[in-house]
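From: lab user (bench 3)
To: helpdesk
Subject: output format question, protein + EPU

Hello, I'm new to running complex predictions and I'm not sure whether the block I got back is the full result or only part of it. Here's what I submitted:
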Amino acid sequence: MAPRLDILHNYPLRTLNTFGIDVQAAHYLQVTDPAQLDALYREPALRDMPRLVLGGGSNLLLTRDFPGLVLHIATRGVVVTGEDEQHVFVTAQAGENWHAFVQWTLAHGLPGLENLSLIPGYVGAAPIQNIGAYGSELADYFYACEVFDCHTGETRSLNKQDCRFAYRDSVFKHELRDCAVIINVTFALPRKWQANLRYSELANELANYGVQAPTASDISQAVIAVRTRKLPDPAKIGNAGSFFKNPVVTAEQRDTLLTKYPSLISYSQANGSYKLAAGWLIEQCGWKGKTMGAAGVHAQHALVLVNYGGASGEDLLRLANQVRDDVLEKFGVVLEPEPLII
Ligand code: EPU
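Helpdesk reply: Thanks, we reran it on our side. This is the complete output you should expect:
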């Protein structure tokens, strides 16, 4: 039997986006079973509506009421689906909370994802921007995902190559942007685990604990401590993590900037280019801790824009544009937003 489609109307989204923006969806459906996607596809009026797939709402800036159908993914379940000589495969449904999933893997003796602890959002959104932190990114452990294609009504599997992961980027931000709904994600977790302490602040944190040979759980605890210290908790102050990507520039551009600004923070990339620390660029423009009405640049981390309460999406966008313009004027570098702006 086809599942019921309990569509709700004029549905408030304030608690469903971590910026806490108070807007509405014209139509809203909570998706607890992937079969609902198939049922939707069979209803032309619903199929052809503008659609917004919402997970944890942690990488989203809503600047207006959404005129179409919001699909709020709420499917649950995590299972070990197989293993080979090198990996254990774990499949999580898209509506699982990311951090809870990471903790589940650690509690089941399956290390690998610990550096990605406490990233807000849901499992299904994680591949879209290839979430990353503290020297790891999702692509390092991604094996495959199942997607429902809203244009063809088919469910198919994508492997790592199909997803074309790059820095905060994937095929889901390009060709598949408007048609793929991620149903579940399978991770390949290593049987032979090694601690990843490339990010020096993490290594220092563990050294401060006096831990010599950290376990994955130790690393998770250290990541949680560092994140909690530096980044605002979206449950307390509305935010979407880093608002801009770290810009990538040529070696020539970086050298010119370094001559002018000797304390410039940059990281060399495998292809000879350099990634600049956007937080540093923004701080140098004097924005750290500044506010424009209820919208602000976080006082502990200039890459994070915050809603101190009652800011609209437009207020935040105005602030973001001002920050972007100032960085462009001072450094000649373009900052690109990380969240999806609607
Ligand atoms: N910095 C400043 N001023 C600031 C903020 C940062 O000078 O106000 C400097 C720091 O001192 C550091 C450098 O900028 O030398 C980089 O800062 P940080 O290590 O905090 O990392 P980030 O590059 O700002 C990225 C990710 C974060 C991730 C951290 C840790 C992006 C856009 N952001 O931030 O991811 O947690 O690295 O790995 O790549 C997210 O994507 O939402 C996110 C929080």
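A quick orientation on your result: Residues 23 and 65 are 5 Å apart (CA to CA). Let us know if anything else is unclear.
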